[in-house]
Design goal:
By secondary structure, the protein is an alpha/beta fold. It has helices at about 10-15, 25-35, 45-50, 55, 85-100, 120-125, 130, 145, 165-170, 195-210, 225-230, 240-245, 260-269, and strands at about 5-10, 40, 60-65, 70-75, 80, 105-110, 115-120, 155, 180, 190, 215-220, 235, 250.
């Protein structure tokens, strides 16, 4: 296949277990860029989390954040698009969940991913790795303030319940008007209706005039499934859940074995 764009998830995929870009991976990315191939990080992270590794990976162009909810240019901050979850939908969802499961905590990502509005108590159970933000900077507000404005990503968390169990409870509510997924982080992530990594990538490819068939995508988690199904060629990482592997055309070695780099090297010949 002709290769014009590489779309890659970060955590568990491009980055190793220490959240670093290996030298081999950086060389593979640079080799692809040298022949004019677009390299696009497609991540659940917000810009603050991308900036942590952008220099290491050589990212200085378009990135898709919030599971495809918005496209931002890492060099100049331009926004190509942003799809927010309406505040009314967020309030309905939060009320239904609270009626089903006590003890939930919520947070809202806003303003091009730069603003993080967390409910009182959220920071106390958060770690730096969760949102690539120091919990001491999160503050805490009453829940009505978290629910007061649209969210690029709405975060649902429970102090004890594992995210897959919380995700199942959410799905059993039978509510509509949003997209929910898991990225491997310790919470459920909710975006605007219809928003996935695939929809965001399709919009960016249209802007860049890149055909779907000229895209290779890499991922390892549930939030990557739609992107893997959409891309012209897709690669799941070793150890990914079966649903993720089933969505891909091939399975690479793990993120700690330079799986992404190995596939890029092969495709570049």
């Amino acid at each position: 296949m002709p290769l014009r764009l590489i779309a890659t998830d970060l955590d568990g995929t491009l980055l190793d277990s220490a959240s670093a870009v290996s030298p081999r991976t950086r060389r593979a990315l640079d080799a692809a860029r040298a022949v004019g191939i677009h390299i696009v990080p497609v991540t659940a992270r917000q810009p603050i989390g991308l900036r942590m590794i952008a220099a290491e990976a050589g990212f200085d162009d378009w990135a898709l954040c919030g599971n495809g909810a918005y496209a931002t240019h890492l060099a100049d901050g331009r926004m190509l698009f942003a799809e927010a979850l309406p505040a009314e939908t967020v309030r309905t969802l939060a009320a239904a969940l609270q009626a089903t499961l006590p003890g939930l905590l919520f947070a809202s990502v806003r303003d091009g991913g730069e603003t993080f509005v967390a409910q009182h108590g959220y920071a106390q159970i958060a770690k730096l790795a969760d949102h690539k933000r120091d919990p001491r900077t999160m503050g805490g507000v009453p829940l009505d303030q978290v629910l007061a404005e649209p969210s690029l990503k709405f975060v649902i968390r429970h102090p004890e319940l594992a995210p897959p169990a919380l995700f199942d409870i959410l799905r059993r509510l039978g509510l509509t008007g949003f997209e929910a997924t898991l990225s491997g982080a310790p919470f459920v992530e909710v975006m605007a209706e219809g928003v996935t990594k695939a929809t965001g990538l399709a919009r960016l490819c249209e802007h860049l005039e890149v055909k779907r068939t000229d895209v290779v995508a890499f991922g390892d988690a549930l939030n990557d499934v739609e992107m893997l199904r959409w891309a012209g060629h897709s690669v799941a990482m070793a150890g990914a859940e079966q649903a993720v592997q089933d969505a891909a055309d091939e399975v690479a070695t793990s993120n700690d074995e330079d799986g992404v780099a190995r596939v890029i090297e092969r495709m570049l010949g």
